[in-house]
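mind reviewing these C-alpha cells:
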Amino acid sequence: MSAALEFRQATKNFGRHRALDGLTLALHPGEILGFLGPNGAGKTTAIHLALGFLRPTSGGGAILGKPFGDTAVRSRVGYLPDVSSFYAEGARSAIEFAGKLNGMRNPRLRERARELVARMNLSSAGKDARKFSRGMQQRLGLAQALVNDPEVLILDEPTSALDPAGVMEVRELLRAAREEGKSIFFSSHQLSEVEQICDRIAFLHRGKLLREGQMEQFLEESGRSEVVVRGPILRDFQPYASEAKDEVVRYVVPVLRQRELIEHAWTAGAELISVTPLRRTLEELFLSWSDGGSGEA
C-alpha cells in the first residue's frame, strides 16, 4: 500500500542555511504520526514543502501519490497551521469559505459547516473570527481543516491554546478520524498528547531525521525500577531515594541493583510495598535527543 504522505530525500536551503537535510519519511494510511523536534529543527519547513508552499532545493515527495505542489490533490488534504488567520466573519462563514476553496458547493457545504460548528462548539463564538479567543480560533482552524472530509490531515500544533477540555475533544476527534481511515501528520510540542494518540513518531534535529519508529518501541522499559519500602532510609541507597514521607521511601534504582536494595530493606526490617519497572517518557526522550542530537536514549 502506497504512503499517504512521503518525503524522499527532501532538502531545503535558505541561502547558506540548510533548514531541511535529506528528509526521507513516510506517513502510512490510517495512522497518526507525531512529527517532533525542538524549535528550528525544520518541522514547519517540511510541512510547507509537503503542501507546496515552498519548493525543495533537491529531493521531493508526494501526497496521495501526487507530487508536492500538485493542485489536484489539495481538495483531499486538510491543513491546520500553527497560527491561523481569519477575516471579519463568523465561524460558519469561515468554514464555508474554506470549503469553497476546496471545491465544495451547497447544499453539502452548508450542511457540513453546520455540523462542524456544533461539533467544535463554535455556535457562541461571536461574529468576527479575528476577535475570537485563541482557543476558539484554534477550534475554528480545525473545523476548516476538516470541512472537506480530507484523506490526509496535516496539523501544526493542533492543541496549542486549548484548555484541558478542548485538548480531550481534539484527542478524541483525531482518534475518530484515524478510525475512519484518515492519515494524520501531527506536529506538536504537547508531548503528553503525542504519547497518548500517535502510532509512530519521527524526531527531527537540525534539519535531519534523527529517530523514527513505533511509539511503543521508544517507550519500552528504561532499565530502572521504582522500589517503595516502609522503614528507615537505607544508607547505601540514599542517593537513589527521591521521596520520604511517613517512613515510606521511594527509590529509583538501576534494575541490576533492584535485588540488592530489596535484600538490604529486609535486613533492615523494612516493609516492601511495591516494585515497578519504569518506562521512559517521551519528554525524557525529547530532551535526550535534543541534547546535541547524537546521544542514545
Notes: The domain at 5-218 is CATH 3.40.50.300 (Rossmann fold). The chain is about 30% helix and 30% strand. Residues 241 and 251 are 4 Å apart (CA to CA).
